[in-house]
Amino acid sequence: MAVVGGAAALPLIFKLLLSLLLCFNSSPSLTQAAGKWVPWEDRYPFIREASSFSSSSNNANNNKAYDYIIVGGGTAGCPLAATLSQKFSVLLLERGGVPFANANVSFMQNFHIALADTSPSSASQYFVSTDGVFNSRARVLGGGTCINAGFYTRAGPSYIKKAGWDSKLVNESYPWIEKQIVHRPNLAPWQRAVRDSLLEIGISPFNGFTYDHIYGTKVGGTIFDRFGRRHTAAELLASANPKKLDVLVHATVQKIDFDTSGKKPRAVGVIFKDENGNQHKAFLSKRKGSEIIVSSGAIGSPHILMLSGIGPKAELEKLNIPVVLDNKFVGQGMSDNPLNTIFVPTNRHVEQSLIQTVGITKAGVYIEASSGFGQSGDSIRCNHGVASAEIGQLSTIPPKQRTFEAIEAYRRSKKNIPHELFRGGFILEKIATPLSRGNISLVTTNADDNPSITFNYFSHPRDLKRCVDGIRIVEKIAKSKHFTNYTQCDKETLDKLLNMSVQANVNLIPKHTNNTQSLEQFCKDTVITIWHYHGGCHVGKVIAPDYRVLGVHRLRVIDGSTFEESPGTNPQATVMMMGRYMGVKILRERLGRTAGL
């Protein structure tokens, strides 16, 4: 069941069928209470459209000013809001809609369709980095947990120590997430083959099913349940105090408002736009300890800071943005973990699976896998415009050539592709801790527009060496005996697989085909993303160790933009944990023992 462009265009009968499926497939949009199915609106009565907000009744001089305003209802923002609402009034602002009843979000089988949907109502907002690599940002309550591959694994002890976190509170915060939305996967055949192949080539020991980050091969958790239904960070809002939490969706924050009359600027409120384009202002309470917390992700958070006047002075002045604080480090030090894949075609149908097995190597790379996407009829023949659902990336039609005629030609050719060609799966290789760094910079002052984003993939020679080492591991996996159930893979076949991967429409980088002797060139030609980008608001440069923004009062940043490295093999577990962790930490700092958490 694939839905592209939103449910509004569906025939009425299809909407009814979708509603039934959502009801009886352990839907996160409905909850069972007293033997009855309850609509999500009843479970989350505090979630409303942004247009319902009344600026006139919310000002700094009355009781409706908020103790905390959180900008971004994503992977960190949802657990943070749920936690802070236990004791204080919280306003959570999310630019996207709700994930509930969105089939592209809810069903694992539609994982690739959600990424291919480039409509304005999509849960993902695509962008192309200046490197020529296609990418996506979440635009939905629940953030990246709504559009990712679902894999759940914790950061290692060394990462926790380096971050300066309290390990006891960390180990209390992870289970708070896991008890609510994390599941043990039913291991798919492709994942079993990858697991056994990893062990065969020496990525050992086998650590079984575990959330822990340990060298060797393991099976991790997932936010997909046994029915293939996704459970997102938005569901963590069920743990909130509904009397103290307001969540506004389709609320696009334009900027943070500051009082600049004192020695340091003080955050006093936020200006946001609702779904109808009308502007509102939400005020922060004058009570001591009240704060605005930006949790808009590695791209969104530095972007909002700059739109609000915190960033490199010269860049802000170019766009006539009043400078609140000159900080040259905002938006700098961005990093994305480069991903390279080999597609292994098969001679039979392969069960769909997303990441379940991972090989944590000592070569500085992680090995993961997915299978079965793109082989269904609806995937191949759905109208995706210039998007390719088979690989979850965009077509390599250059932006200036994306005419109506070009799009129509692409659609026609796509419809004639036999879907049997897409049987098979991917073996994925990800650089663990890339040293290459990039930045983001403003293009316009419109908060809806993507900033210019550069990651500089493989600009550091160590990253390229690690990629080569990783591709050699993938080669061994493809030739291992456990993959003979899927394909006979000798050197000649492997060369063909490498060249087929080079020729795939995965990015806008010029290709060097028939060059399998140069794995360095293969890495450069076929680099894509696994959506684990981070940085832009680093500790010591933009924020203090307690995540307060340097040089201003009553403003913090809490999300992946503060990371120097992406935690674990996949970051979502730690980003959600961070939201819970910092929520508890803030309450304890403000209330002491009376926090009760």
Distance between the termini: 42 Å
Report the radius of gyration as a whole number of Å.
Answer: 23 Å
Give the beta-strand count. Answer: 29
How are the strands of the biggest sheet laid out side by side?
Answer: 9-10-21-22-25-20-28
The CATH homologous superfamily of the domain at 44-183 and 228-335 and 448-457 and 533-596 is termed FAD/NAD(P)-binding domain
Looking at how many chains there are and whether they match, the oligomeric state comes to: single chain
What is the residue-averaged pLDDT? 84
Share of helix among residues? 25-40%
Which fold does the CATH topology of the domain at 44-183 and 228-335 and 448-457 and 533-596 refer to?
A: FAD/NAD(P)-binding domain
What class do helices, strands and sheet pairing give? Answer: alpha/beta
Which spans of ≥5 residues are poorly predicted at pLDDT below 50?
1-28, 375-399
**Shape, principal axes of CA atoms:** globular
Largest sheet: 7 strands, mixed
Helix tally?
Answer: 16
Strand fraction equals: 15-25%
Disulfide bonds: 467-523
Cofactor: FAD
Keywords: Disulfide bond, FAD, Flavoprotein, Signal
InterPro entries: FAD/NAD-bd_sf (IPR036188), GMC_Oxidoreductase-Related (IPR051871), GMC_OxRdtase (IPR012132), GMC_OxRdtase_N (IPR000172), GMC_OxRtase_C (IPR007867)
Describe the structure.
This protein has a domain at 44-183 and 228-335 and 448-457 and 533-596: FAD/NAD(P)-binding domain, CATH 3.50.50. It is of the alpha/beta class and 597 residues long. Helix 3 (77-84) runs parallel beside helix 16 and helix 13 (461-479) crosses helix 15. The protein has a seven-stranded mixed beta sheet with strand order 9-10-21-22-25-20-28. 27% of the residues lie in helices and 20% in strands.
